[in-house]
Design goal:
Layout lengths: L1 H11 L3 H8 L4 E5 L6 H20 L8 E3 L4 H13 L5 E5 L1 H8 L8 E6 L19 E5 L4 H11 L4 E7 H6 L4 H9 L4 E7 L2 H6 L7 E4 L7 H13 L4 E3 L4 H4 L4 E2 L5 H17 L18 E3 H7 L5 H4 L3 E3 L9 E2 L1 H11 L1 H22 L4 E10 L2 H6 L7 E14 L1 H68 L5 H35 L9 E2 L12 H6 L4 H18 L1 H22 L5 E15 L23 E10 L7 H67 L5 H36 L8 H17 L3
Parallel strand pairs: 1-2, 1-3, 3-4, 4-5, 6-7, 6-8, 8-9, 9-10, 11-12, 13-16
Antiparallel strand pairs: 10-11, 14-15, 15-17, 17-18
Helix pairs in contact: 3-12, 4-5, 15-18, 16-18, 18-19, 18-22, 18-24, 21-23, 22-23, 23-24
């Protein structure tokens, strides 16, 4: 009676609403099925939403004294509803529970508004439905958007099966016995054999599973304590049976395999109930309120459970699912942009190979310098001759002889030798500069690969969110078809779009995998070793000097000076140009050596010693000579001999070889000089081009964000209009695609700029990540001084 008077006043008497709202209070009574561990938290959601929405204008409240908790029986819930309907202090009744909602929704003569917000499946429960409303005065129910058949189809997508058991708590089966038959019939249409089993405990449920069961569908078990839920989940895992939960995603977190109920289900349902109560208070009959409740279905899969029971969902399912415990083992490493670059410099194989080339080059210098150092040779000779020859030598040659010698040589002056040392030192510098260039290339490759991973992850997330939007629109289309406001072709069109969007998510996932493999290769890691990343944006503290760049890119003049400065820096520090300078220096040294060869002699010193270590056999001495022989008085040499020599040599004519060598060296100097000039032009072009590209991508960031925000606003308006039937499916598709493109563009713009920024640093030959703080500060000082000196 109070509510009727209020409605009449609000509708018929101008200005009466404010007056009544200030004096009247609306009491919402609640009936809950029975004791449950989450009753307090779930009820708090509804109380908060109701009192926040209607408390100020209507004095709406949900007193604790008007909350009745049943005993999980139909009779108990029915009695509680009768008490609330007969209570004159209760203006609106909230039947909060599966049993209470079913009992309330079956009634056709209600003295006050009743909202039943937990209807499992209005078709299977045979509840009243007229054009999307109950058509029953004072009755509104809220149908859970995920039907049993839709859950079954989602379960089949995760893993194929033929025989499935539906476990349902005994109070629900007793209260809604008609559910069993329609559920089985609905499952048969998609090729499933269903057995519905009422259960009261985990032990009973596990013992009742028939032989050959392929999967278990767990209907609401709110009457069970948490310990029983945990035992059931563990028992199904032990039997390696996949499970699917209806209505409560927290049970998936406890160990069941999957559900389609989103985490925010109860909070959004509470908001919907509060809005319905507000509409009733504003004069709309509860029987005219819509019964369909739109909340995006979100497939959630516990991957730890999937691994345990050896169920591996296909790609098309994984792409749109929320994956819990995706990594059974925690990541062994997490990379930042800075860490990725430094690790690449330390372990990259290409760079390691160049390090060895530098190490080998050191020995070329040592080899060239060795020609200027003393050379010592030793040798030993053993000789055996025939006896008659030894005897005939009159003691000058023994039959067996062992001699040794040592030779010392020292090059005192040689222009080619000194030139070779100088040239090898220059060549070693070239190798080191080439190594520096490779290090810069590796730094660019590593930073680009890391940023591409972040880009791929972001794009994958956006594609998944777009897939969720498409899934939501598909659910809206099915509701529109169900209430007769749309044709089945809309459902088919959204199903087609869903398949396209799933493929886009798969492609995005593959792109991310490729980017991760690329970075692992650069870091000399197992190619598919997992790792974590940390997001990098324009405010990353690892880019301290980069933020200084922004102020120089705001206008045309400062940007021009900025390009001039960085081009000059690149021409000074680029390792490619420094390598050319060393090459030119080496070739100039070769040219001067060729010219000096016409008049510069080679001067060397040589000394040697030879000794007789031993002799034997015939001919050892000259004892056979008579005393009066003419040869007996000839002096005999001792066993050791030595010599010292000094030589000066100057080739006079070599057939024109020295002339040709001189001309060739001169031509090489000219060639290298021209090539260096060309390289300098290329480096300057690279710097200036990279800066222009970076400037454009920097300017695109804000523009792309504006475009994304506008596209989102447009999409929200069109989506709302589509739900009300004000626009066509083509309008919504266009708006969704425009929003997707704009959002992808906004994400791309940031990473495009960061990649372009890395390219600029490579072009100038210095990465801010690897230089010291002192070097960074000196660079910034030079930049500021350059701007001061080049002011207009």
């Amino acid at each position: 009676m109070v509510l009727s008077v209020l409605a009449s006043l609000l509708v018929l008497v101008p200005g009466a609403q404010d007056a009544v709202a200030k004096t009247a209070g609306i009491t919402v009574g609640v009936v809950i099925d029975g004791p449950w561990e989450r009753n307090e938290s779930v009820l708090a959601l509804f109380v908060t939403e109701i009192e926040d929405l209607i408390g100020a204008d209507f004095g709406g409240r949900v007193p604790a004294a008007k909350v009745i908790i049943g005993d999980w029986t139909s009779a108990g819930v029915r009695s509680a509803i009768d008490r609330q309907l007969g209570d004159p202090e209760v203006d609106i009744l909230l039947a909060l529970g599966v049993l209470a909602s079913n009992e309330a929704a079956q009634r056709t003569n209600l003295p006050k508004p009743v909202i039943a917000p937990v209807v499992l499946d209005p078709d299977l429960q045979s509840l009243p439905s007229i054009e999307g409303t109950t058509g029953v005065r004072n009755l509104n129910y809220v149908a859970i958007p995920q039907t049993f058949e839709e859950d079954f189809r989602a379960f089949l997508e995760i893993t194929p099966m033929r025989r499935m058991v539906v476990l349902m708590s005994e109070p629900i089966i007793e209260s809604i016995p008609a559910l069993s038959g329609p559920i089985a019939e609905s499952a048969a249409e998609i090729g499933l054999e269903i057995t519905v089993i009422p259960v009261g405990s985990a032990e009973e449920a596990l013992a009742s599973l028939p032989e050959g069961t392929d999967g278990v569908y767990v209907a609401p078990l709110h009457a069970w304590p948490p310990s029983e839920i945990d035992l059931l989940a563990a028992g199904l895992i032990e039997r390696r049976l996949p499970s699917f939960v209806r209505l409560d995603v927290t049970e998936v977190e406890r160990g069941f395999l999957a559900t389609r109920t989103p985490l925010e289900f109860f909070s959004r349902l509470a908001r919907r109930v509060a809005l319905n109560i507000q509409s009733i208070l504003l004069g709309t009959d509860a029987g005219d309120l819509p019964t369909q409740f739109q909340v995006p279905a979100r497939l959630t899969i516990n991957m730890a459970t999937a691994y345990s029971i050896q169920v591996f969902p296909p790609w098309k399912v994984m792409t749109e699912a929320e994956l819990l415990n995706e990594r059974v083992r925690p990541l062994v490493r997490t990379l930042t942009l800075d860490a990725a670059i430094r690790e690449a410099i330390r372990v990259n194989l290409d760079l390691a190979a160049q390090d060895q080339a530098v190490a080998a080059g050191v020995q070329d210098i040592a080899r060239a310098r060795s020609r200027l150092l003393p050379q010592i040779d030793v040798s030993s000779t053993a000789t055996l001759i025939d006896r008659d020859r030894a005897e005939a030598s009159f003691g000058s040659q023994a039959q067996r002889t062992l001699t040794g010698s040592a030779t010392l040589s020292q090059l005192l002056f040689s222009e080619p030798a000194w030139a070779d040392v100088s040239i090898q030192r220059s060549l070693q510098d070239i190798r080191e500069f080439e190594r520096d260039a490779i290090e810069l290339d590796i730094s660019l490759a590593a930073s680009t690969a890391y940023l591409n991973i972040l880009r791929a992850k972001t794009l994958e997330r956006i594609q998944k969110e777009n897939l969720d939007v498409t899934r939501t629109n598909l659910d809206k289309a099915r509701v529109r078809v169900r209430i007769g406001s749309a044709r089945p072709t809309e459902v088919y069109r959204w199903e087609s779009q869903l398949a396209v969007d799933r493929q886009a998510v798969i492609d995005a996932s593959a792109t991310r995998n490729l980017a991760e493999i690329g970075l692992n290769r650069l870091l000399h890691r197992p190619l598919e070793e997992p790792f974590g990343t940390e997001e990098t944006d324009l405010e990353d503290p690892m880019l301290p000097d980069i933020r200084r760049f922004y102020s120089y890119m705001d206008n045309r003049w400062s940007f021009r000076v900025f390009r001039q400065f960085l081009a000059a820096e690149a021409l000074t520090i680029a390792p490619e140009l420094r390598a050319f300078d060393r090459s030119i220096g080496a070739q100039n040294r070769a040219l001067s050596s060729a010219r000096r060869s016409f008049w510069s002699p080679a001067i060397s010193l040589q000394a040697g010693v030879t000794g007789l270590f031993g002799e034997g056999g015939a001919g050892v001495d000259a004892s056979g000579l008579s005393t009066g022989s003419p040869l007996s008085g000839i002096p005999q040499a001792d066993d050791v001999s030595w010599n010292v020599g000094f030589s000066v040599s100057l080739p006079l004519f070599e057939g024109g070889a020295r002339v040709a060598q001189t001309r060739q060296a001169s031509a090489e100097v000219t060639r290298l000089t021209v090539e260096r000039e060309a390289a300098a032009e290329r480096i300057e072009q690279r710097v200036r081009s990279a800066l222009h590209v970076m400037g454009a991508s920097y300017a695109s960031i804000d523009l792309s964000k504006d475009a994304s925000a506008a596209a989102k606003s447009n999409f929200d308006l069109v989506s709302d209009a589509y739900a009300r039937g004000a626009v066509t499916i083509l309008d919504l598709l266009d708006a969704q695609n425009a929003f997707l493109v704009a959002e992808l563009g906004a994400a791309d713009a940031v990473y495009d700029f960061l990649v372009d920024l890395m390219e600029v640093q490579r072009a100038i030959g210095s990465f801010s990540f690897v230089i010291t703080a002192e070097e960074r500060e000196l660079f910034l000082q030079r930049m500021d001084e350059y701007f001061e000196q080049n002011q207009p």
